[in-house]
Amino acid sequence: MRILIATDAWKPQVNGVVRSLESVARALREFGAEIEFLTPQGFATVPLPTYGEIRLALASRGAVSKRLEGAAIDHIHIATEGPVGFAARRYCLRATRPFTTSYHTRFPEYIAARTRIPEAITYALLRRFHNAGSGVMVSTASIADDLNKRGFQRLMRWSRGVDHSQFSPAKAATIDLPRPVFLYAGRLAPEKNVEAFLALDLPGSKLVVGDGPSRRTLEASYPQAHFIGTQGSDALAVLYASADVLVFPSRTDTFGMVLLEALACGLPVAALPVPGPLDVIGTSGAGVLDMDLRAACLAALEIPRGKARAHALTFTWAKSARQFLDNILLAKATSPLGLASRPGLFG
């Protein structure tokens, strides 16, 4: 089967969506699937307002349609709700081609955190975007339940995996900071709630990996924390394996790839009991979930690193790829006719 994945999130972006798509594509090839990507590469781009590190493709309907019409593709999966995703969706609707989508990011909450746009408006737009497809893949049961209540249809579970050889306790090295080392890894933006971590009264050191629009403000407000910017996967694995606790303060993530990466390196997690951590950590004992984040951080210090690693071993990219492929086969088998007659969104 030849599958085309249309995505606005792509290199040089460093985030969980890009890492997930690259990893699942490699695993899908082991099942005999051929994967192609339609990405912003090859299109002119403009910076995303308030977040210049992300570039939005100026992907016209005609240009995207030309690329898709010339490709011998068995199925189209639309991974993101950006310009590339919208153009691919329009093509599928006009060509009456079944397609699936995935819900990676809680844009309504992110947009509301940066603007005055109510979440209800953005959810209405996303609902129309996704409900036009034959299935929308979501990473956790918590997110599926939430979207179901909001009127999203044909929801399918698609979990994630982690590379257990790349992210391993064997990567441990010495961190020249007072112990214990509490690590944050991720985007530095308002919706990530990083300040909830940085404001905690904790022993030892706070190490912050990542970049984003909030970095300068956070550095100025919390000079005692150590900000080291974005790190590649290999360097990040060393930090995970060498720190004492991963602190995950976000309330808005749909999954949290860094949770699995940290656990695979034997790093216990401290997080809030919200979707993402509730699904990944759950009752495994590999982390501590508490609305009192400080209490969670201190309690996580007592978790054996082997317990964190053992839980991570239950998540594999092979399982994720099989789930993704099964979802596509089910969507193709049950896709209703007359796809193009469904309500459109922006044409």
Describe, in short, the structure shown.
By secondary structure, the protein is an alpha/beta fold. The protein has 14 helices and 14 strands.
Commentary on this structure:
There is one protein chain. By secondary structure, the chain is α/β, with parallel strands linked by helices. It is 38% helix and 17% strand. The chain has two domains: 184 residues, Rossmann fold; 144 residues, Rossmann fold. A six-stranded parallel β-sheet has the order 2-1-5-6-7-8, with helices on both faces. Strand 1, helix 1 and strand 2 form a beta-alpha-beta unit.
CATH fold-level name of the largest domain: Rossmann fold
Biggest β-sheet: strands ordered side by side in the sheet = 2-1-5-6-7-8
Strand content: 15-25%
State the name of the first-level CATH class of the largest domain: Alpha Beta
Low-confidence runs of at least 5 consecutive residues: 337-344
What CATH architecture of the largest domain would you give? Answer: 3-Layer(aba) Sandwich
Using only C-alpha atoms, the radius of gyration works out to: 20 Å
Total E-strand runs:
14
When the domains are counted, the total is 2
Order of helices and strands: EHEEEHEHEHHEHEEHEHEHEHEHEHHH
CATH superfamily of the largest domain: Glycogen Phosphorylase B
Shape: globular
> Termini separation (Å)?
29 Å
Largest sheet: 6 strands, parallel
Task: Output the number of helix runs.
Answer: 14
Question: Given the helix and strand composition, which structural class is it?
Answer: alpha/beta
Average pLDDT, rounded to a whole number, is: 92
